[in-house]
């Protein structure tokens, strides 16, 4: 590659990257089973061409044609596995306008081919693809017609393509989740050998739908003498008074010549600050123009809660003031990022994200794909979930490695909302054939594609090589078992792992990532000896819920440097399930319910019942089971997250598993597939609040800590009341306090005897509150002295009053006795509530804002309020109350 570097004096910021001569291909698409495919005997109607949607997938095209049932409703999964075994053919017919044909150069860019694809244009070979995560490009100069162009895309089954080679291996590397349907042998899984979203092969929170299709847009790009192909901005230094930057613009030129560039800087308020017009001498091929920049008084981008999310716009134009001008525009933020790994006196090592010099406690969740079929996910869906994360006081999301690199919209919205993004490369588990040079080269090209695409987003603060591959090898027996079977091959596999994740991806991030740090695996300590360590690196903790299924109080005895995975399962909101599981099938052990429970191959409800029954008792029916699953999940994760926060600065992150769902089923999410908040998400809004109280009881002692994540001190008070369930206060104390910025301040450790005195622990609670300087309650925690089923919780009388207020409603709740885990619902209606899943103290009024399309009378009729005491009441008592 020939390069010419031009150094230009003082300018400012960052550039963007999509030339206006690129546009989505306007084609009429159709699809069919590939002639000769064995599935034609059972599906002869698919021999004919049928209308297709691009971007899309075979499953969604079949659904749109009425040829398969809804893959999510009922239990159709087993009967749809033939789709992943078939070979498919897509055809796109299109015309090309005169202006495009007149340009000297043209290229087709396929942004997502899933996965083994052979492409022809007008009957001649164009390209072959084997990676769903890459953009595949082919020059089409002189091969386009004004009318009647035809693209043919043949998509081969990844299972049938790879299975012979996998079966021929004397010893196989470990995979993830074996298929229960017979479409793939359980001892010869192909998912780890193909660069395709791993979750399509099934996971413990989603179905197995092995897709094929053109899942992202096809772009037709055309240009004459020159085009802009890349730009990047490296921050050399950044402070409150000055930013020093290098802007690098890449220009492809057909011949030796010059390029006129115009760069405009637009500030976060939309004002054009400056225009700059450099000229560069070019050689044929790729040329790199570097512009050093000094920007006085920059407005920095901060995570939510730490400052503004200032974003500049840089507009670049090639050949301005001409008919062939090409413009590029991008929004960027100025921030520095550091992964601080300080070694402590005991030999441990911290794990802290430092943004603009400020250590940030990471509060958030893991994100999985938003749908089994990615083309169905639009920007509105992404915004809904990310806004919900921000509204629950999260500041970080981990983009998990078993899915796909999200669309640009995901990162644009994260930038806007101030959400930090931990970005995995797309390796979800098991082990990869990193020993194969062709596989590694394919991954390196994929990584370069995606790091370059996403590197300008200030939200992206970490690139991580993979999810759980190192700990699986070292801790789960993958390495031990293969070493026992074939030591030489095991050593080759491990060296391939080190080469790919320790060297190749690290180098790509170093070269292309603009200073964002790299981490080789999660959990891990960047290829240190121990992979899942509480004293160094990040931690995945599944001894609660997983094996050995410890009680939730075990969370209080696990104190990591950064908790990047932990979780408890719960079912979606009942209204979400009503459209998927028929009423007659809504039983814990029904076939349809089991089909929507993927943990332990459908047996996961037994694990869920274990946790419910240990803490709350046996549910009397399916609605109670769903409600108690959510209460258990919310209260358990609150315990863990508050412990993590109270352990600051030793612990500097808490990311629970998981934020969202790919379909309507049992999972660890806090937002269900329909976007409805589970109890956990309402709890997260409280336990992740910037200023909060953590009152954590374990083994007879309650530790009270006050949490302040903001950059200014909190001057206020904390209050402790010990009261019975009817509201009679036994003891009360209140203290002035100053909580430093970015700190967790422990203010008391009290044993049960000190708190309770002679009070009955089964009829008594301790209420701890954090108040601001004006006496307003900022945060509240209720301490219970036994598991819920052992408490003498009375059936409260909850008075509710719903009134119109402005363009919404206000609900006032008041209870005569303590009401725990109060759930507000509206039968048959959707409503957005400001708060839910809350504890009501005796005699105290709580007000909740409600937004809904229904009128007041309809909402009042539909309103239902229940508490934990209602769910724990005997069946005959409930029947009598009704």
Shape: globular
Poorly predicted residue ranges: 1-20
Quote the distance from N terminus to C terminus: 79 Å
Kindly estimate the percentage of residues that lie in beta strands according to DSSP.
Answer: 25-35%
Share of helical residues: 10-25%
Largest sheet: 6 strands, antiparallel
Structural class: alpha+beta
> How are the strands of the largest sheet arranged?
3-2-4-10-7-8
State Rg.
29 Å
Mean pLDDT: 94
Tell me how many strands there are.
Answer: 45
Number of continuous helical runs:
19
Question: What does it look like?
Answer:
21% of the residues lie in helices and 31% in strands. It has 882 residues and is an alpha+beta fold. The chain has a 6-stranded antiparallel β-sheet. The chain has a 6-stranded parallel β-sheet with strand order 28-27-26-25-24-31. Strands 15, 16, 17, 19 and 20 form a 5-stranded antiparallel β-sheet that branches. The radius of gyration is 29 Å and the shape is globular.
Gist?
The protein has 882 residues and is of the alpha+beta class.
């Amino acid at each position: 590659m020939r390069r010419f570097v031009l150094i230009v004096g003082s300018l400012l910021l960052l550039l963007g990257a999509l030339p206006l001569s690129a546009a989505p291909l306007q084609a009429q698409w159709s699809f069919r089973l590939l002639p000769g495919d064995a599935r034609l005997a059972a599906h002869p109607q698919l021999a004919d061409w049928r209308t297709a949607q691009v971007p899309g997938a075979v499953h969604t095209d079949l659904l749109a044609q009425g040829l398969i049932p809804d893959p999510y409703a009922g239990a159709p999964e087993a009967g749809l596995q033939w789709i992943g075994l078939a070979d498919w053919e897509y055809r796109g017919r299109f015309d090309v306008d005169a202006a495009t044909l007149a340009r000297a150069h043209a290229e087709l860019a396929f942004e997502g081919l899933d996965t083994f694809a052979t492409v022809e244009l007008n009957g001649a070979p164009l390209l072959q693809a084997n990676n769903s995560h890459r953009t595949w490009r082919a020059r089409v100069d002189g091969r386009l017609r004004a009318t009647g162009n035809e693209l043919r895309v043949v998509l081969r089954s990844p299972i049938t393509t790879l299975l012979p080679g996998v079966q021929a291996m004397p010893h196989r590397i470990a995979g993830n989740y074996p298929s229960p349907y017979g479409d793939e042998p359980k001892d010869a899984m192909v998912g780890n050998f193909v660069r395709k979203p791993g979750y399509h092969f099934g996971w413990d929170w989603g179905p197995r739908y092995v897709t094929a299709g053109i899942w992202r847009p096809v772009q037709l790009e055309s240009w004459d003498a020159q085009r802009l192909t890349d730009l990047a901005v490296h921050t050399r230094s950044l402070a409150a008074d000055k930013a020093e930057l290098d802007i690098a613009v890449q220009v492809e030129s057909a011949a030796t010549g010059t390029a006129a560039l115009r760069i405009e800087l637009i500030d976060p308020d939309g004002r054009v600050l400056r225009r700059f017009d450099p000229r560069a001498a070019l050689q044929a091929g790729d040329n790199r123009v570097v512009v050093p920049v000094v920007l006085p008084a920059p407005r920095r981008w901060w995570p939510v809660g730490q400052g503004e999310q200032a974003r500049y716009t840089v507009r670049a134009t090639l050949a301005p003031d001409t008919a062939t001008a090409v413009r590029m525009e991008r929004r960027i933020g100025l921030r520095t990022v550091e992964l601080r790994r300080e070694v402590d006196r005991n030999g441990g090592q911290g794990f802290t994200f430092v943004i603009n010099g400020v250590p940030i406690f990471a509060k958030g969740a893991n994100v999985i794909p938003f749908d089994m079929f990615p083309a169905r996910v639009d920007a509105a869906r992404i915004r809904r979930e990310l806004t919900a994360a921000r509204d629950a006081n999260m500041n970080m999301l981990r983009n998990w490695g078993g899915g796909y690199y999200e669309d640009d919209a995901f990162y644009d919205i994260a930038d806007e909302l101030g959400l930090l993004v931990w970005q995995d490369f797309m390796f979800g588990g098991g082990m990869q054939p990193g020993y194969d040079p062709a596989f590694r080269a394919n991954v390196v090209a994929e990584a370069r594609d995606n790091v370059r695409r996403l590197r300008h987003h200030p939200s992206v603060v970490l690139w991580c090589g993979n999810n759980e591959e190192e700990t699986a090898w070292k801790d789960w027996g993958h390495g031990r078992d293969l070493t026992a079977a074939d030591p030489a091959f095991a050593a080759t596999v491990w060296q391939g792992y080190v080469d790919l994740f320790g060297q190749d991806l690290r180098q790509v991030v170093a070269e292309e990532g603009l200073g964002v740090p790299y981490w080789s695996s999660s959990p891990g300590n960047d290829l240190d000896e121990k992979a899942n360590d509480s004293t160094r690196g990040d931690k995945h903790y599944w001894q609660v819920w997983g094996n050995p299924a410890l009680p939730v109080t075990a969370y209080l005895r696990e104190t990591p440097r950064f908790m990047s995975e932990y979780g408890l399962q719960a079912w979606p909101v009942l209204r979400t399930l009503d459209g998927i599981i028929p009423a007659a099938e809504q039983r814990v052990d029904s076939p349809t319910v089991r089909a929507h429970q993927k943990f332990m191959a459908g047996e996961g409800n037994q694990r869920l019942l274990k946790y419910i029954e240990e803490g709350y008792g046996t549910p009397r029916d399916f609605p109670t089971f769903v409600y108690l699953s959510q209460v258990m999940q919310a209260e358990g994760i609150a315990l863990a997250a508050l412990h993590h926060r109270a352990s600051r600065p030793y612990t500097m992150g808490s990311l629970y598993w998981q934020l969202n769902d790919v379909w309507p089923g049992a999972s660890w999410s806090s937002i269900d597939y329909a976007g409805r908040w589970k109890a956990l998400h309402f709890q997260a809004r409280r336990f992740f609040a910037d200023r909060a109280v953590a009152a954590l009881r374990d083994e007879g002692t309650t530790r009270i800590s006050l949490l302040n994540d903001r950059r200014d001190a909190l001057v206020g008070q904390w209050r402790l009341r010990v009261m019975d369930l009817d509201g009679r206060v036994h003891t009360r104390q209140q203290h002035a306090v100053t909580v430093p910025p970015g700190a967790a301040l422990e203010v008391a450790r009290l044993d049960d005897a000190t708190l309770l005195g002679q009070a009955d622990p089964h009829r008594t609670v301790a209420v701890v509150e954090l108040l601001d300087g004006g006496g307003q309650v900022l945060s509240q925690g209720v301490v219970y002295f036994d598991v819920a089923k052992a408490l003498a919780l009375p059936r409260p009388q909850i008075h509710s009053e719903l009134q119109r207020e402005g363009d919404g409603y206000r609900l006032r709740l008041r209870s005569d006795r303590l009401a725990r885990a109060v759930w507000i619902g509206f039968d048959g209606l959707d409503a957005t509530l400001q708060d839910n899943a809350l504890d009501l103290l005796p005699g105290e009024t709580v007000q909740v804002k409600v937004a809904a399309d229904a009128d007041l009378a309809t909402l009042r009729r539909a309103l239902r309020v229940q508490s934990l005491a209602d769910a724990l009441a005997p069946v005959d008592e409930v029947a009598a109350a009704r």
